[in-house]
Amino acid sequence: MIVGSLAAGYHLLGDGKEAQVQTKDIDCLLLPRVEAVRAGGQVAGDLLAARWRPRNEGEHARPGDENTPDRALPAVRLWPPDSKEWFIELLAAHDPADSADTRWLRLPLPGGHFGLPSYRYLDVATHGAPMTEFGLRCARPSLLALSNLLRNPEIRPETMDALVEGRRIRRSNKDLGRVVAIARLSGADGAREWPGVWVDALRACHGDVWRPLAGRTGNGLRALLASGSDLEEARVTCNAGLLARGPVTLEQYRREAERVLVDAIEPIEELAQGGGD
Amino acid sequence: MAAADEEPHAVQLLCLIAPRMTEERIAEEWGLMQRSLRPEVARRLAVRVLHADGRARSFGIVPDSMAEQLCGASSPVERRSGTRLPRPDYSFIVLKLLVYGWLTHRGPLTTLWIAGAAGCSYPTVATALRRLGRVVRRHRDRRVELLEFPREEWGRLLLTADEARSTLRYADRSGQPRSASSLADRLRALRPEKVAIGGVLAARHYDPELDLMGLPRLDVSVHSPGRWPDLSFVRRLDPALEATSDPTEPARLTVHFVRHAKSLFLEGPDRLAWADPVECLLDLHEARLEPQAGELVNALRERSQEKP
Asked: Which of A184, A188, A258 lies closest to B177 in CB terms?
């Protein structure tokens, strides 16, 4: 399943010839989790046989061996045969019962040991993902937004490896910022439909704890709105990515974020507090 | 005093919210009151003054913390609202009510009804009626009505309507504005109290054949006889809306305050009310839709005449 900004762009930008998503990594989620290692091995093997090349740039780029700790393993990142402008990255589904933010699954390949990272709450993004004409499922933008909100209840200090517009960006700002970008691309009323979709996904994926999860969906976005510098980082990241064709000012971006609060987060918080189903 | 004797430790607190009197004048009055009343009575009275800019001051023996708590509990909406309205313009209101009566064929109105609907005293109505002169027919039983549509007075009313209704215009700050229809749908879903739909939508309700395409903006009327309206619904409609004083900036939402005591709102089937027909007329004029306003006057007169 395709997740991340390409999935959002696929659904939101459609066939528009002017449409453009600026992204370097195509996140491919392997699921179910129990099949991830087998499927990952097969996908990587097939692509390498088709002359795709391992992306050997950056930290932890070299393959490990049986002595390399899981967390130090390189992710499977492959360039297509004729380009170094983008690459695919393989991810594994996260165990819903696992409270760790990130977990690495060891993937032994003929060239060495790699890792399949799995991220908490990415499972909600897989709920009801439609099949595309290319035979790949593509996560729904509204649920990618929910996944990002759940995974970032606060703005964490970790930064992204790559600079954006020459700036070091906090990973949480990128994730939370993308929620606002998805809302923007969904139209002036787009986020109004989200609460119902979110509740369905939460109940399907985390039925026993959906209410407390729903009740804290807004924590990260509120933290973002409360910090001018973090909001600006988020805006810069979006303007360089999903909003590349329609960049926004900080004021416009703030207003869009407030719309998400009013249209999606406050209603789901009310649902979480209610007694009924 | 009998009631006070029953509760010898009770204290009476008067909370003045954004008073027009200066603090010096209030202190002066407070001093006079202290000298006029018996000490055992005076020491059980207190005044808490809350200014519009958030400053506060207490007179009397009630601690500030308690006074603040009491006043806060009594007027949460007033303290939240950032908009303070001027005093109602009763000349405007009285003429508006007369036009309302004329348009809807209510027949002659008693001064008492007008005073009750306006929320002012009998003498205030009498003064306003005197100013209107010959356009008002006075019956022997003191009831009054307009002889005809008062074009000259209406023209003057239009000139003061913005101020009398304290009209607020809201512009989009997101760069991706919501449509007026979307705002109207949201308003129907929210159903805020004391808020009615006006403008083009209400005009179409009163005259379905009105010659008008599209919906350029949403007009709403907020019933606010007091001076602190609750505008919290605006954020729920769209947090990207912001009040603007720039007349050249396109308004997505326009809020008009209905200052008379009776709202004259017409309850709709979906429990969201329609503003009264005169409000709609004023809205159409304000939006420069004069031909449609004239059309609405004719339609309202014809329709109400047809009613038994």
From this structure: A188
Closest chain A residue to B183, measured at CA: A189
Shared domain check, B138 and B179? no
Residue A167, strand partner residues: A164
Confidence of residue B77 (pLDDT cuts 50, 70, 90): very low
How does pLDDT run across A223-259, given as a tens digit for each residue? 999 999 999 999 999 999 999 889 999 999 999 999 9
Number of domains in chain A: 2
Neighboring chain B residues of A261 at a CB cutoff of 8 Å: 239
- Among the partner-chain residues B173, B182, B236, the one whose CB lies closest to the CB of A188 is B182
Nearest residue to B202 (alpha-carbon basis) of B118, B189, B193, B188: B188
Residues B114, B195, single domain; the answer is: no
Instruction: Give the domain extent around B40.
Output: 2-80
Cβ pair B239:A189 closer than 8 A: no
A189 — contact with chain B (CB < 8 Å)? Answer: yes
Q: Is some CB atom of chain A closer than 8 A to the CB atom of B179?
A: yes
| H or E segment to which residue A45 belongs | helix A33-49
Instruction: Report CA torsion sign: A7, A8, A14, A15.
Output: negative
Residue B308 lies in a domain: no
The last residue of one of the domains, among A89, A123, A157, is A123
Partners of A26 in the β-ladder = A88
Q: What is the pTM of this model?
A: 0.82
Where is the domain boundary, B161, B186, B220? B161
Q: What is the mean pLDDT of residues A152-165?
A: 91
- Residues A106 and A205 both lie in one domain: no
Which residue range is the domain that position A16 belongs to? 2-123
